[in-house]
């Protein structure tokens, strides 16, 4: 676009050129990292300078801080995207950066944020957005953002952000303005240069434009030059904006349009005239297009004037603009006055009297490259440099007393004369109206700027204090020299010269104070020991300045070399060292009228302007200003005349001796009342105060307190003592010198004298004193019954306020036991509702919140009481107005308050917090999260996350991301275990599972999910007793739904943050030496892992498995706590649905198999895991099997063991002699507990239905008996004569089905009517389920009989063999499967059938005939005639082992039983032996 200034250009060519030019610019910036960093530092320096130039008392709102934080985060995220090579990370950081930068890009340009013009912030944001879209390979959007930058703030866009791009895109169109400016400036210079008529138009004026020329210029010439530069700057900005809008229209128009567009003609600021320089296409070297505005100048050059136009129009004015005499403007530094050029050289000056004269000029001839007419030369004042202009000696002009970014100000402005062009860097700040002389010199402008920024606070305090002192001392001297232009100078010992100011190496960069104990880190940077210790204690691991990681948190020894140098410097400058020490102390604290340091609630003086933003101490001070005024009123114009004061004191004298010495109590009481009357008449005069503050008089009042019973006298004495203490702290020392005095006051307080609380509070007793007198009940009663203040003798503060303040001291101090006791006292006295109502008063708000917080921590059930009555806007108001300590209390309070057992109420509280107040609470919390101390971060992060989760989680939320990141980062801090524990507790609270007592029951709930119900049932039973059943029924459905949705949201965002990074953090906490931390980590990890199975699959389960699988297995193997093992098993169950995770879990099968089998008794998840492991082909079941022979009993005296079954820890056996025995089947063996002999002949069969409430026995004596089951006992309740011998039996509540002689089966309906069902097969065994009976028959078949219809069908028909008899000998039904065993046919002795489909699910490949079958949860046991028991894996019907019974001879196994859990196996033989094994 360069070349022609007016041309017709195709619109497509314009767009193409813009894309190419801007693309090249952004590409160069993206490649050059150093340039980006340098540019960011320069812009940040300008921000810092503006912060330094603003009023110290101005408070920066959190909403403004949030905007600046967004800009910073956006630029940081953009840098991360540029530097990363990971595509996913790059896209994520770009999305995040775009959201952050858009906040600043959309700011209203005519307003300010934290004192910074929004136009600057918005332009900076658009510049970075252009980089962002370039990274996305978008060629169109970078151009639009660059053009928008020039539209919003053309001035800083061309001098700060993109000067080279401005020259390429806009400068070719500015030739007429540049030519006009050059011609006009030439004429001005011709007027100022002597004998200029001999010079040609093209002469190089820079060789003449030097110091002598500036001194020789007349005021009217200076004014013309100033207006010329002002108009020139306006024209450049307006036309830059005009062309930027035109380019933007071209970019946004239809790209296919073929219409050619005529570029608009550039307007000329002054009446148009032909610029001679336009003839040649070159621009003179001395013509610049903007001042090299120092970054320390802030943004004042671009602030808008009262007419709505930028004063940036004046930003081109020269240094001579300091001669502007405007009596209407207040004293303020104009950035156009004395703005230095960045690359100026140094020069030196010396002082002559009260003026400054050049001592040495290094170069009087300025080259075009070193000087620009639009740069701003420096100025100073001199009495002798020019005559005094008449009528102007008292006029004010804009002062440069601001010292660039420093806040050194004065009440008046100088009428200054120029001294030095821009080649000089020395400055003199003068004021003709100052009452004292102040001379401030700097030999190096750049050094001065940096020093001022770093030591802004200290420079401020020194200059203010000293200037004010000198003003009062030299007022008469300056009044006599009214017309002189004297310099504003500091006192002689206060001159801020580089020689007297401490070297920067002596000052800590953190504290800004001279080193006391310097330590030098490995990075080479030196810090104050206490400051760097605090930096490291907050969790930082890098150097504050270099940001390099520190290898160790241990600090080195003191840098004694530097310390000796500082000591030497202090000895050479004792006065300055003392003053600096004073200013530092003065800056950090101030004294109350009592001489004590008062810590304000507000972070800055301006905070007190917020309604109610005061602490109790401030409130006391405000109520007692009358005493302060009286203390300083010593002139005849005071409240009362000196004569009246003497009269009052004389009136006191008769009563004082009576008070101090009289033994008559009534006389003393009358004296007290008389003194009070005179005291009131004195209106708190200082002399009366002083008279009554004598120790003897104070002791007299104290004696009255201990002796009098008159309430009015006691109250009057206390009020007088309270006011005396307020103005004279020595009175308080008199009272506290004797313990009995405090005991007396405590007794009065307990007796209901409310004013005693005020006096006790003023004495500032130690926590031990307050606790020893058990004052909490009395203080609570005082709060509950507010005292009416009398107008006769008002107290310095309300007694209830003093009571609340002392309650806070008592509850927040002492040990944990005492705090708990005192908090419970407050709760039991019903003090919480009253305290909640008092929150509307700001002066006691912090104390109340502290008390309520302590109460909630001690008794969490009071959360509901507080939540139902509190106005949260008061808490948020205190948060916005308070300092870090108060904000931390507010956050902890809100964090505790929302942990309610009702999810709906908790959500309501969160919604109020989110929407309440004038500021965005979430944005405010986000900013505070970035700046909060480490101990406050978990609570604020948790609270912020909950506020964000009130709505359905979105794809991206800065609040959520920052909150979770803060929590995870804290979990990684191994060196801060307390911090880790706080975060784990916070994560537990996020689940939202709270009892009515306020305790988290997430662990109990997880145990219930794992099938271990006992803890949950016990907890629910307790909670139900604490609730009304009606309320519970009405709210249960809504509460359950709200809790379910909340839990899913929380788990979803936690698990999916950064692809499951929280699991890695929990893995580190698992390895902690703290058992409490490890347990909390287990609960949280189990909860999140369990929730993964209920959430949509987002791919984070792999991260959970990689981080936590080993930890869960370790807990399962090593923990001795049953509940911990169940939690680990619940988490492992989540992994079995993932084939990869299950395969990895199979590697640990051998180690966890035994533990899981034991857990089956308490948790169903152990069974699920075992099934999954047994189905793995990689798991060798034979390696998992083991058994131990426990006992072998001989019951041969009862004959054969015909049948046995296991039920509820007991083994029941039947014998051939008709006896039934009950055994206790413990781990140590079998113990006989009962032997029943009801049957006359052999008991052939025993059966217990699924209900487990009855035992049926069949015998050869042709009877069936029904037994009632009791613990370790059976009792026969019915006998049924069935007329036939019973060989096998199955029964339910309606029928009994048994096998007798012949084919078929007999059905007995308990009414005495037997029914014979025959199907021409001999039945060997029975199995019943519901109304169906399965019969194992000869011919290797199974018949199915329907008891309701008495019909039968063939379930399975075996293959007929020519040789031998094939019979089904045993049937067993379990979990929908039918197990059948019998004769071995073709190597198969039994099969497993599905009852529903009749399909064969498996078979028993063995050569032995199966006589008996027993089944438990894991294994199938088959017994043979030869005394061998084969063990089969239930899931795969695979043989894993065989057991040999210890019977001798040819005894065969006649009965077999196993407990359901699979812990024991029992077998009975034909020789009367019973053997038991423990299955490991």
From TrEMBL:
Keywords on record: Transferase, Ubl conjugation pathway, WD repeat
Sections of the chain in a coiled coil: none
Ranges where the record places region Disordered: 326-398, 410-433
Domain of life: Eukaryota
Catalysed reaction equations from the record: S-ubiquitinyl-[E2 ubiquitin-conjugating enzyme]-L-cysteine + [acceptor protein]-L-lysine = [E2 ubiquitin-conjugating enzyme]-L-cysteine + N(6)-ubiquitinyl-[acceptor protein]-L-lysine
EC number: 2.3.2.27
Pathway note: Protein modification; protein ubiquitination
Name this protein carries in UniProt: RING-type E3 ubiquitin transferase
Gene Ontology MF terms: ubiquitin protein ligase activity
Keyword Transferase: yes
U-box domain location: 501-576
Biased composition (Low complexity): 376-389
GO BP: protein ubiquitination
Family matches, as Pfam families: ARM_LIN (PF23568), ARM_LIN_2nd (PF23654), ARM_LIN_C (PF23628), U-box (PF04564), WD40 (PF00400)
Keyword Phosphoprotein: no
WD repeat segments: 1236-1270, 1453-1480
